[in-house]
Amino acid sequence: MTLPSGTKPRFVYSFGDGVAEAAPEMHALVGAKGERLAEMTRLGLPVPPGFTITTQVCEHMLKTSEFPAGAREQIQAALTLLEARTETTYGDPDNPLLLSVRPATPVTAGGMLEAVLNVGMNRDIAVGLAARTGDERYAWDCYRRYLQDYAAVCMGMRRGILETLLERAKDGEGVYDESELSAPALEGLTEIFKRKMIESSSALPPDDPREQLWASIEAVFRSWNSPKPVGYRNAHGLPHDHYTAVTVQLMVFGNMGEHSATGMAFTRDPDNGEKRFFGEWLPNAQGEDVRMGLRAPQPLNKESGTLPGDRVLEREHPEAYRELTRAYRVLESHFRDMLRMAFTIQQNKLWIIQTRIGKRSPRAEVRIAVDLAREGIITTTQAIRRVQTQTLDKILHPQIDTDSLRDVVARGLGASPGAATGHAVFSSKEAVEWAGRGLSVVLVRSETTPDDIHGMLKSAGILTRRGGMTSHAAVVARGASRACIVGCLDLELHPDERYMMVGDQTIAQGDIITIDGTSGSVMVGEVETVQPKASRELEELLAWVDDVARLRVYVNADTARDCERAVRFGAKGVGLCRTEHMFFETGRIDIFRQMIVAEDEAPRREALAKLMPMQKADFKAIFRVMRGLPVTIRLLDPPLHEFVPHGDREIGALAEVLGDTPEVIRRRLESMSEINPMLGHRGCRLGLTYPEIYEMQVRAVVEAACEVMNDDGVPVNPQIMIPLVSHVRELELLRDVVRTTMTRACEAYGVNLQLAVGTMIELPRSCLTGGQLAEVADFFSFGTNDLTQTIFGISRDDCGRFLPFYVEMGILPIDPFVSLDPSVGELVEIAVERGRAKNPGLELGMCGEHGGDPRSIAFCHKAGLDYVSCSPFRVPIARLAAAQAALEASS
Amino acid sequence: MTLPSGTKPRFVYSFGDGVAEAAPEMHALVGAKGERLAEMTRLGLPVPPGFTITTQVCEHMLKTSEFPAGAREQIQAALTLLEARTETTYGDPDNPLLLSVRPATPVTAGGMLEAVLNVGMNRDIAVGLAARTGDERYAWDCYRRYLQDYAAVCMGMRRGILETLLERAKDGEGVYDESELSAPALEGLTEIFKRKMIESSSALPPDDPREQLWASIEAVFRSWNSPKPVGYRNAHGLPHDHYTAVTVQLMVFGNMGEHSATGMAFTRDPDNGEKRFFGEWLPNAQGEDVRMGLRAPQPLNKESGTLPGDRVLEREHPEAYRELTRAYRVLESHFRDMLRMAFTIQQNKLWIIQTRIGKRSPRAEVRIAVDLAREGIITTTQAIRRVQTQTLDKILHPQIDTDSLRDVVARGLGASPGAATGHAVFSSKEAVEWAGRGLSVVLVRSETTPDDIHGMLKSAGILTRRGGMTSHAAVVARGASRACIVGCLDLELHPDERYMMVGDQTIAQGDIITIDGTSGSVMVGEVETVQPKASRELEELLAWVDDVARLRVYVNADTARDCERAVRFGAKGVGLCRTEHMFFETGRIDIFRQMIVAEDEAPRREALAKLMPMQKADFKAIFRVMRGLPVTIRLLDPPLHEFVPHGDREIGALAEVLGDTPEVIRRRLESMSEINPMLGHRGCRLGLTYPEIYEMQVRAVVEAACEVMNDDGVPVNPQIMIPLVSHVRELELLRDVVRTTMTRACEAYGVNLQLAVGTMIELPRSCLTGGQLAEVADFFSFGTNDLTQTIFGISRDDCGRFLPFYVEMGILPIDPFVSLDPSVGELVEIAVERGRAKNPGLELGMCGEHGGDPRSIAFCHKAGLDYVSCSPFRVPIARLAAAQAALEASS
């Protein structure tokens, strides 16, 4: 904001008597507060009159240490106007005008800037004020407050220095509250303060009120560049060059005795969002006193919750209270949101000091948005925009009370959201045992394998030392909605001795720990958690959302139970059903392992024949839940050795089942191990080398579909998805396998099944050859986890040693596994463009972890995808994000 | 080739008396042979006259089973002309015309089609021919030959049936060679043949010569669709619809007694390429006899190598020999290549039956191309195009005699070319021991690690069960030019018991095995190998190559010795110096391991300080060899744990050095292990998390460069290459580290060093962000190994279980790690385009394995790269390929 050349610049905008010079939309010049004060003045609300000095003056002053030419004159003129409006004279002991000098920034500065109140005081004026008001206590209180502010803001003294003296004076008089200090004590304090100022700064505040004003304005401007605001702007990525304006306002006093007061009111309940006027106040106090919490505030009204003995504003100041409720209605309908108002009652007259959009809890955020829309104050699309997606995340999972986060002893990757508290156990067997005794447990492992499934499902939370967002632990935990942290390298595990070290702290089996799967924080002991609550308002909001969104939201779900939950959350289909997860259950994993270690086709087919009815039963249950909504079934994807047993006992057990020696099994398993399994023998490569596996799976799908249709009369819509395709020939060959198997299976049922066949797009090569693939695919589903891994050359399981460092150092602006990287996006766009060009009817979705990330969903909307698919608990978030993306794109 | 509509089609083209109707470039219609016969006729060479029936007739006949309208008439007319030219009459027993009916295909059919000779024979004509020539033996020999051909080609009898009868007749007369059979015996055979034909086919060849001709022509056409030619075309990817023509020619007879003969001549030596007329002949025989090798052939001339008792054509048929040498000169200067000629001498008259480009050995291929260019017969650019790049591969490494390949017991990936024979050993220790006793060894391991280096360098060849083209074994073997096979899954290793199983064959320590690192074949026992020979001609060819090529060829080399070799081979710089390989040597690996297991920066720096002078000495040696040519030094790239010790003994040793317990070391190593190391903590990620490593390496480079310049007065041109960059920030930060380190190091020497800093482009993301990277890079070097791995999502180390299957099944047309995949190419092009747009001076190279692959080099040329870099032994091949690519692009 530089000075316009040629025209005579305007630096000061006055307000008062229902008239304000600053126009709306002028906050870059006068700050948000300056704009709102002007607005409130025009609305006829009782705002203390004053004027705002623009951000241009701040900029000029910070760069040159001087006021720009003409600014002082304009300030002087505004002061003269203010004197006229208030019928007082600045610096006149007999009828003094006292001023507040406050910062007013275009965007929030986090309350980090300084203000000076009671400007225009000196000893003479204090005496005059005492005489004029007959309130000596008030007069000296104003003076000592002024001295405290001036010392801190204009002279740079630590506030603590004078506050210690204030405490000492209270002790001297034996009072607890500073409002109880006597006038002589306060007068004495002003002298004590001045001596201290001489002593520590060799200076005193000027007696001349003009000098006080110039110094205060300059000090507020200068506070823009002091360390705390600069740090705040850095931390929040805010620019340093929008500067602050300064408002100079008539001081009004809540500390002028029993007919005076100060308080804070919310137009609605900031905790639960209920529509009730709500707040607290302090008799005979200035505004800072409420904020600083030095005295116990009193309720505004009955709705604010009263206890016996409370002093209720509505009762004690009925006139001011009526005026206040009028102001609340005017303001809410003008600003169309829940507001926080600071007010002062000076000798029974109400003043609105300032107002701003009120902070609120996640719950309240949803309720207020929905209520405002219902009341016709905002539209439903505005309500949709008002609710942040993170808010839903907080509503749908137990949350750690943020105060507790200071006790964090270790950090990992938050892999499945929510909080869990329980007894630490170091093996799945013990998890099952302890849980069997009715205890809540947190399972701590180096990493998990299918053998841990049982223990994981019995645990409230899972914590692993290794692994990433797509590791076994993370995937299972998200599916089962257990809180989970992975990649927590700070742990040193000794599972055999049943303890772990975190730093030099020992945590033994049975010790209580708490994990926050949202933030990845590990805490020792029990920690306060906030339980999620369902709400009618959320349901109403989500109902509106679907009218706005273009993207459909599907769910990544492998069980009928997850599907049920997702349908309740509004999922419109299953975007990813990972068939391998169906093998994890006890009883099945053994047969699956027989299949894996089979040397030849015959024993492999034998094991598959046993697995087939199990998969079929699972698919039937899912189809019944989804009732004709699309169910996208991904054929076996991960490397087989992910399922193999570890440890002597399990290998021995498998050997016994197979009638082989453990040595033979071990050698076979060794020969299956891979150096880089992510890039190894998996996905459609398995399907091509062992076609009998995919044949079994397709048969299970088709038979399940036919039986559900025939026996239950329920419509079905299964879709077969081929994973890890890199070359069109792979897809062609496997599509033929699917079709042949389907035709054969359908004949037995006399059913004419429609079976879409599509492919995951999860490798750069499949993006680049999207045109070729689209000619043989009915749909693409972008697997952005693997796509991110291969585009970056980063294994999600191994990035713990450098990726957090990268994000911290700003090498990567954001973890690309959380939010879609632009280069990943570019390849997705290439695939979309080439795919649609060859096959305009191609269905396009995304089923990676990004499917639940609002920023990535916005990308998917822009890229023209048809759906995103995410884990059950993220479905509502994705629906909201999809709607917001649509609104954003159309605005 | 369909019939032109409207015009009267021409189906027959005659040749004879120096006149030929078929124009040049007409081989699609008359076949290569038809074209060449016409050409030779026009050149005035003694070609037996005749005519060619076009491929259109073949197509029509195969589709309709009939000759097209007008064809029979045209053939009849051509036959009449032929009768006039030869002054004989077809079917006239007193002066008969005998014909050969041979296939003539537009492109080679691998000699798979059938021919019928001596057409126009019957008993009466045999009697007449005997009378007219006074040679009864000849007449009956022609008849029995005709019967054999007709039975096989026109009647479909197995040739063996009549041949058995021929053998029986030879036994009956007690002769070894069929030329010794008496006339009565041959006459008797014709009757025996006919009885057999009745017996097995209930049919006889027609007596009518016309019928014989139609049937023979039709049979040759039909042989186009018989199983062997169809299989040959499938195997070589040749189209099935170009069909064959048929040539009908005057039969000439080498079997008309002592003044007749047949033979085969080469215009140059097909084995070593020497310019000498060369060949062999058989007195009194027909052409087939030479081909079938039934009798021992005799030398053409002294240059063909004579033994006492040999019958030399030059001496026995001086006139015909003179005529033949004249023909050779005419033909070679006309066809401008080394030719093979089939000839017949009929009663002292020479006939050239056919000629074709002669097959030759790799050595001869180079020598002939160079000699022809020197002689002015072709240009040097033609010579460059004439030599196949694979040919150089064969010349530069020992080769297995192809006959031995039938004894292959196992196959893996040919990872480093050449053949090696030696005693199998199963540990590096034993390799060193056995080699110390002066024995040649082949080291067999599951996979190799740095601990094996010593043993590998002592071995003639290396064979591993696991790993791919970029595995440790493969990389070390190529660098050291040892034959190497990796990923040989057929082996079942028992190193502790010192044996392995291949199928059910046991190979114990000390057994001789042979490996072919070119084809990936493993053989048991010693196998004939062909040793490579240097040649002046190759050097001359390569000198021409550099005038033509635009791409420069650099070498991937890590030692001064490799650099020396590469400079001798014509490398123009080092495109990839892998600094980690310098740590593999004994003595260094221990210090390197200390560095790796260091928990903190201080001990890490301590180990680095010890490594620094070693690296510096290596760089100095390299700079001295390269004398100012660019040396591109890649900073540490692979995951650290690739270097860690395995096994109790080694861990114990390291623990002792470090004064820690093995347990501590083991735990530390475990914590370093990664699930997917390819995508883990490596490359610039190491450089950023442990900056002291790159600092040490850059200091070693800079100090080495300064000292070589100052002390040796040798110019230097080092370039620093940052590996595995995925985001521009990584490169920015590390470029700053390099520059700061350089500036500091240079100051001490008072030298102003130019140090280019560039990056490997080996991840999809670095291709896509090529524009951003180019703004901070002096050069890009495409690492197409990793790029292929990430684009396909295939680990080179783990693809053994499916990639060979993919190539075999045609899912992938070619192994993408051997020849650049089009999608990889597309990303390279994107990077080139975006990079050059932002930085027109950007230097572009390729240093993956593809840098030595001719097809990939052709791509690099087209993509506008500046250089390719490959292993030392591939430098000549790459230079040739670069020149051929330039010629291809400009033609």
Care to describe what's here?
The structure is a homodimer of 891-residue chains. The first copy, chain A, is elongated, with a radius of gyration of 34 Å. In chain A, a hairpin with a 4-residue loop joins strand 22 and strand 23. Chain A is of the alpha/beta class. In chain A, strands 13-23-22-15-16-17-18-14 form an eight-stranded mixed beta sheet. Chain A has an eight-stranded parallel β-barrel with strand order 25-26-27-28-29-30-31-32, surrounded by five helices. Chain A starts with 11 loop residues before the first strand and ends with a helix. Chain A has 34 helices and 32 strands.
Set out the fold topology.
Two copies of one chain form a homodimer.
Chain A: E1 12-16, E2 19-20, H1 27-42, E3 50-53, H2 55-64, H3 71-86, E4 99-104, E5 116-119, H4 123-133, H5 136-153, H6 159-173, H7 183-201, H8 209-222, H9 227-235, E6 245-250, E7 261-266, E8 278-283, H10 287-292, E9 298-299, H11 313-316, H12 318-335, E10 339-346, E11 349-357, H13 362-374, H14 380-386, H15 389-396, E12 399-400, E13 408-411, E14 413-416, E15 419-425, H16 428-436, E16 441-445, H17 453-458, E17 461-464, H18 472-480, E18 483-486, E19 491-494, E20 499-502, E21 505-508, E22 512-516, E23 521-524, E24 529-530, H19 536-548, E25 552-556, H20 560-568, E26 574-578, H21 588-597, H22 601-626, E27 631-634, H23 648-658, H24 662-672, H25 684-689, H26 691-712, E28 718-722, H27 728-749, E29 756-761, H28 764-768, H29 770-774, E30 779-782, H30 784-792, H31 803-808, H32 822-838, E31 843-846, H33 854-863, E32 867-870, H34 875-890
Parallel strand pairs in A: 15-16, 16-17, 17-18, 25-26, 25-32, 26-27, 27-28, 28-29, 29-30, 30-31, 31-32
Antiparallel strand pairs in A: 1-2, 1-3, 3-6, 4-5, 4-6, 7-8, 7-10, 8-9, 10-11, 12-24, 13-23, 14-18, 15-22, 19-20, 20-21, 22-23
